[in-house]
Amino acid sequence: MVPLTGPSAADGAEFRKGVILAIEEINVRGGLLGRRLEPVFADTCRQTAEEVVAAARWLIEKHDVHAIINGYNIGPQNSEYEPIADAGILYVHANTLLQHHDTVMNDPDRYFGCFMTDPADYWYGPGFIKFISWLRDTGQWTPESDRIAIVSGSKPYSIVIAHAMAAAAAGFGWRVCFGPRIVQTPTSQWRDVLDEVRATDPAVIANTHFYSGDLAHFQLQFMEKPTNSIVYLQYGAMHQSFSDIAQKKGVGVIVSTVIGLLRDDIGKRFAARYLARFGEGSTPQIGCQSYSAMHHYALAASLAGGSGGPGSFEQNRKVAQALKGSIYRSVNGIVRYHPEWQAAVPYPDVTHDPSLGLPHLFFQIQAERKPLALIAPDPFNTERFVKPPWMDRRAPTVVESGRRRS
């Protein structure tokens, strides 16, 4: 179930590619215990509850799918879990939704097959605060103040992240001077809110909206009158479509993902295969999500002795147990499902062991039409933070003392 049309179509196209590449690789090696896998795609359009539930029912009732595996569908708020739970099939997604924890933990028997292959949206908030504190405390960046401005889109995903940021800020010596201000999205008009943000003279500006095109316009309008601020744009700035719009004015932006592509040998080999298969205009940093989920599911189903279609509760419970019991080294890093949440455990936001958690990756756009620089966390970072080009060159003022260090 992927948004092939609508505001998230750029990501949806990559989720589709990730599934296709994974299935091609699995089938070349003999399929799932000798059975070839066949993908069927349903367009979730604007990702409303009605559209996503209809897509799930269509896949189950018309195509008898054994599993639904995709990237995110932000909007249905778990309503699609109902037809999936009724059918007793596996559902592996990257919805990045804290509500997933509550749904699964409240009725683990009914939702045994629902897995979130990335950490919940909530972890973006404290993870970002820890990141900017790390930049400050390691001397990579000297902020002119302790002020943070937070702008949020109107999706629950964005609002959860914005409030999590605000809640974590004081504990690391930061003060929220603006927001979280919720802006009705999608939108390309940010000038009014940016004028209000500039009036507070923040050291950090964070926008937790995630549509790549909307964020590109936010950055272009910020650059009309830039301030000496780090600019963080949630997730969407990773996408090639952001850079296509923002071009050189996007250089300097920080972006993060709780499920991204590593720059190690495994990640590089995957990126090369992905670009060779789908062309230089594709984005392996996005397609890696569904690619890894597809491979992990196939591994678990093989360990369980095979997959099961709708109504095969006993067999699919075995697959679910294999998913929970197998720590999978993906192109994104380690996927280890929490035994109660059935969501990936994040590093370093929950576990401090990089071999037991999926890394929350921070990137910076450091050059136009060049790969994003991976600047955190250790030991996965391959580059260092660079001062954004819009910041002036005057000496920074002395930062207030007495802040708690990360």
TrEMBL record:
Tell me the InterPro entries matching this sequence: BCAA_transport (IPR051010), Leu-bd (IPR028081), Peripla_BP_I (IPR028082)
Leucine-binding protein domain span: 2-340
Keyword Metal-binding appears in the UniProt entry: no
Cross-referenced SUPFAM superfamilies: Periplasmic binding protein-like I (SSF53822)
Q: Among its keywords, does the record have Signal?
A: yes
What family name appears in the similarity comment? Belongs to the leucine-binding protein family.
Full protein name:
ABC transporter substrate-binding protein
Q: Which organism is it from?
A: Hansschlegelia plantiphila
